[in-house]
Design goal:
Chain lengths: 326, 326, 326, 326
């Protein structure tokens, strides 16, 4: 059993803490959070103890650190953990400043940093990826990525989020790179405020349709909205020389109600904590593999960096209404 | 082009008349109906002329007769047409009296009588049959046949129909024989009046669950109701050594409406005239094949007789609450 | 019954001729085709007679003319028919030259010209349109239109087609205008030759992803490929303030085969003659409505003109890799 | 936190032990198993200790006992636990001997015995039950229960299982009682050996189609096979005065592969440990509710007894080929 510490006892921290505690190869030793109460409560529920960051990092038994603190502290905590010789499992994004991310890249080149792009670990998308790599539709030509949130976050969140492309589309840019198996060369992003004018007042958009061109000329379409009106819509379609692979939404239940009005079936699972519950378990399993020396991280610091570069290009594209090279 | 006459200008007669007129190998010459107006109107719409039965039968150009008159005249018209040397396409049932059907069987043994069990010509069920015969699920073991009407017919219809087993389940008994590829040996029928007590007052039931055993020991389940409350439900499932074949309902459209209430999709097509529209076209094509000498009838007088025998056994089973040998 | 003539006895001409002959309010009087044999054969099968164009147009009983000849003759035939005082049902496109289409527009402003954009008459898309207009998802925000052909046409066809945008996407541009209920203001088209390099040698592309902005700021995504590898894929999704409407593919049958390999269900109907069979019938019904004075054409000459303008803009956008105002 | 002990460290014992350990309100104190190694290994993985039954029962902190030992010891262990004043969560069946179950019934009438009919806790079936009780389809008329195993168990298991009706159909009889909300009055069971003749040599059948009549006249159909050839098929359909409710299979993933062969989608989850994973978690939650005094057991000793009575009647029905009163 490898001892690990978690930094951050909020919503996503609680998910990771429980998954670490339930993982047969991990032992959750410490929960670190500036809000002492939150740390203590989560620690007790998971059989761990609350501690300060320095105490947790100085315990030589601790092999891994899970960074689930607020976004603006990700990079700082990760740097300290790496310096202390720990392996790091870091929530995305690394940092909202692309410049800071680029500057610190050399520190994270040693193969002990794992970035939590959760969708790569979703059983549906992972199966689509395996079939794609297995050649089931021949050479991949184009991709469609639908990624719609059920309802907009509070306006205060919007302001601090870095905007739609850095906060939301970044997941889709990572999906595009991962599924295409190559870098994105150019992006055209058309966006607007179709959902809520107040989002425009905060300098952001709430709806986007994006076309990427990859290095080899593949085309990728991404659709985003902050408010779908019908739940959390997470679908991917891959088109190749010999057919199509599609991964659909998961639903609450399989129950159908047939009446004279037609057939009513369940909405998609809502929201990411539920839809990606299995993905979070799989991420922790991958972190345990890393700590056991059985795997190198499949999502690296550079993956985070590349996705952020596309985000910045998308932002420029939308502002200037023209395709932008990444 | 083979000239044909149709007897009966009612609802199903109109369907067959239009399909005959549109068939590239058939020419609809006559429409026969005791209600002169109905005959004239249908004849005009189809480029035919209205006529009396004797006139139509005495025209030597007429090669085939389509019997779509009222049930109690099917046998009489068919007999006259056979005597006049015509090929016959007869709507089911041959006659409500099993005794009469049996007595007249020898007349219809010459291969020029085709009984309109429409479901055998439904593209979905026909494809299921082909896959079954093609060995896609290995040896067939059991069958489930769901056959639910959207809403009960008028009580006056119930009284004259011969009852649920003779009027409605007879289609399912034919499906069972056709798909199993062998005779039914025994039937157990559990029925009741769960929909409308007035149907019981007319000596009938409105709901039935039936288990058949075939000669070789296969098991067949049939479900019937006069009122589904959700449209015309016509499904078949076949279970074999290597898997399952299922033919589902056809829907009005493919449109889905996703909202916070979930996903609403269309009800099944309602009713048989719409669901089996393609089947009626295919029946007429088969009749044209017969007249062209390219096919023997795939549904014979004996098929009608056997299905009626099972109906009578089902009635005895339900009345006495025990399995009955056919 | 209104007498009509059809010009063109090819594949689509045969469809329209049979639908006209089967329509209760229309009488197909003439079939016109430079290949006399083809005209005679089709005329005989439909109870019409073959004739020269001038003879057909000079028959005062003929109220309507269906233009299904080769693309380069559409405009010329339509002009003659209008001059002769007939109503016209014209296959798309009006002409490959936008300039010619614009120049002749004044001739066709009198309300007796109906352009056959068949997809508007597909029962699935029509139902989606009705629900959209009925407010079922609130204000429309964005549209996705998937329009993939099963396999590329012969290279000779590619050369004469005017290219992907004028030949294929034009249908999708019409869908966008019709569903959005407003004009398209700007188009960005990213295209490439991912299917077959020989198509590039003919100066065309085989794959495109397109983003439209409408006058009011709605966003529309269109996906095209000349070869899907899995059949004819025709789907539309509409996203609004209160949810999503989706119209899916129609399949050959509803049969499913379940085995240890999973569930195999039928491919989409292949190709447009089958998928849009009901649409062609509905088009003819609409033409009969026009001839009866019960309807004005729902698809006008101007609709054809606008769709072609977007096609030209899309071509410029793809060539110059930038968004282009329509 | 309530301390609990588990008896049985086999396959299902391991599931319950892990769910108890992960439950926020339960503490797994002891694992009891005659195979000391198995007990020790499972105890270590769950943070518990291995112990003998007497030691576990004599610990006054232990409030609940989970009985997951071999079937022939269920009743004996449950009796000892009840005598020791513990609440019991017992795997089904209580005992293969109906006589023993009936004789010991009085001991278990005090409301601290919970029988693990897992399917009642499946989110899909539970939602169907809620909608049914909520009146969504009006008065329930009939039920269809499809319960097909993927592949037959070893013949040694067949011999010790008590036969298909006692081992497998008993789950479906419980579903019938639970969903109908009333007792079963009569059963007709048609069974056979269609899968493997060797099962007949062991005095058992492998395929059954069963019709139940409830006290008020509702009809229930049950379909069983020991080998589906396409995975674990667990579906329920409820038919009522105003429509139909259907709960379908859960699949491994949502991925579809479209090609010229059609669409291939995933098989159902295989087998009960995976399909009913959420149900086992929900069972443990219900046991925690019982120990907290927040709930009486929703599945009682009497529920087990009644389902077994129907099993015995079904066996007599199949042997004598006639309906049998329960």
């Amino acid at each position: 059993m490898h001892a690990v510490a978690i930094v951050g006892a909020g919503r996503i921290g609680a998910i990771h803490a429980r998954n670490a505690a339930a993982n047969a190869r991990l032992r959750l030793a410490y929960v670190v959070d500036p809000i002492a109460d939150a740390a203590t409560r989560l620690a007790r529920a998971c059989g761990a103890q609350s501690a300060g960051l320095e105490d947790a990092l100085s315990d030589p038994e601790v092999k891994g650190v899970i960074v689930a603190s607020s976004t603006d502290t990700h990079l700082e905590v990760a740097l300290k953990a790496i310096e202390a010789g720990k392996s790091v499992f870091c929530e995305k994004p690394i940092d909202l400043s692309l410049e800071k991310v680029q500057r610190n890249a050399p520190v994270f080149s040693s193969g002990n940093f794992f970035l939590g792009f959760n969708r790569r670990f979703d059983p549906n998308f992972a199966e689509l990826w395996r079939k794609l790599r297995g050649g089931e539709i021949g050479r991949l030509e184009t991709l469609h990525i639908i990624s719609h949130d059920p309802a907009p976050p509070p306006l205060s969140y919007i302001g601090a989020s870095g905007g739609l492309f850095r906060d939301m589309t970044i997941h889709d840019f990572d999906m595009a790179r991962w599924l295409a198996g190559e870098e994105v060369a150019e992006v055209y992003a058309a966006g607007g405020c179709l959902v809520d004018e107040k989002i425009a007042d905060h300098g952001d958009i709430d709806t986007a349709k994006i076309i990427l061109k990859t290095a080899s000329g593949r085309l990728v379409f991404i659709s985003n909205t902050r408010r779908s009106g019908y739940g959390y819509d997470q679908r991917i379609e891959a088109y190749g020389a010999k057919g199509r692979l599609a991964a659909g939404n998961m639903r609450e239940t399989t129950v159908e109600h047939w009446s004279t009005e037609g057939c009513v079936s369940d909405a998609p699972m809502d929201f990411f904590l539920e839809r990606y519950a299995a993905a979070y378990v799989n991420e922790m399993e991958h972190f345990a593999d890393m700590l056991s020396g059985d795997a190198s991280p499949t999502v690296t610091y550079d993956d985070g960096l590349q996705a952020q570069k596309i985000s910045e290009s998308a932002l420029r594209s939308a502002r200037n209404n023209r395709p932008v090279k990444v």
